[in-house]
Amino acid sequence: MDKGTGDAELARILDGIGPRLRGLRRDRGLTLEELAATTGISVSTLSRVESGKRRPTLDLLIPLARAHRVALDQLVAAPASGDPRVHLRPLRKERGSVLVPLTQYPGRVQVFKQVLAPRRPELVTHEGYEWLYVLAGRLRLVLGEREVTLRPGEVAEFDTTEPHWFGPADAEAVEILHLFGPRGDQAVVRAGPSAAEPAPPAAPADGAPGGGA
C-alpha cells in the first residue's frame, strides 16, 4: 500500500468513528449530558467528535469504549483480519436495540448478543425455546402472568409458546446473551458447581429472538 492509499484509508476509518459513536449512544438511549457524566468528557467535545469536527484520540476513545461496553476495535472498525467467523456484524433493530449474531447454524441453537433499549412491553408467542443470560443492566422478563427481574450473572429459560416479553427493567439499556433453539431442544447440564460452593440462586425457569427483541 502506497502512502496516498494508506492516508486515504486512515481518513476513511477516522471519518467513520463519529457516526458510529453517535449510533452507539442513541442505541443505548443516552444523552450527550449523560455520556459526559459517565466518561468525564465535556458535552462540547463529545458533540464535536460525533459530528466529525474533531478527530478522536485514544484518551477519548478508551473511556467511550468502556461507557458503551464495546471493544476499542469496534469503535475504530479496523479492517478485518484472521478468521472471518469472529468478525461480528451488528444489526440495528427498531426502537434502538442492537442484535449481534454470534453463530450461523441453520436448524440449530442460535446465539446472539443483544443491547435492548427501553420500550413498551408487548407479549408474543412463537415456536421455540430460549435462554437469556444478563451481561450488564437489569432485565425484566414477563412470562404469561409471571414477572421476574434478572441481574448480571442470572439466567432464565422458557418455552416460547408461552406469552412472553423481555427488556430493560428501568430506563437504562440492558445487555444480554440470547440463545434461541427449536422447541424441545433444552439445555442438558453435565457439570455443576463444586459441592463446597453453593450454587447461585436460579431465576424462575420455564426459559427470545422473536419475543424480546
Structure description:
The structure is a single chain. By secondary structure, the chain is of the alpha+beta class. 27% of the residues lie in helices and 23% in strands. It has five helices and nine strands; from the N terminus they run H-H-H-H-H-E-E-E-E-E-E-E-E-E. The strands form two sheets. Strands 1-2-3-9-4-7 form a six-stranded antiparallel β-sheet, with no helix packed on it. The chain has a three-stranded antiparallel β-sheet with strand order 6-5-8, with no helix packed on it. Strand 5 and strand 6 form a beta hairpin. Helix 1 packs across helix 3.
Summarize the helices and strands and which ones pair or pack.
Elements: H1 3-27, H2 32-39, H3 43-51, H4 58-68, H5 72-76, E1 91-92, E2 98-101, E3 110-116, E4 129-136, E5 139-143, E6 146-150, E7 155-159, E8 164-168, E9 174-181
Antiparallel strand pairs: 1-2, 2-3, 3-9, 4-7, 4-9, 5-6, 5-8
Helix pairs in contact: 1-3
At a glance:
With 213 residues, the chain is α+β, with helices and mostly antiparallel strands. Helices cover 27% and strands 23% of the residues.
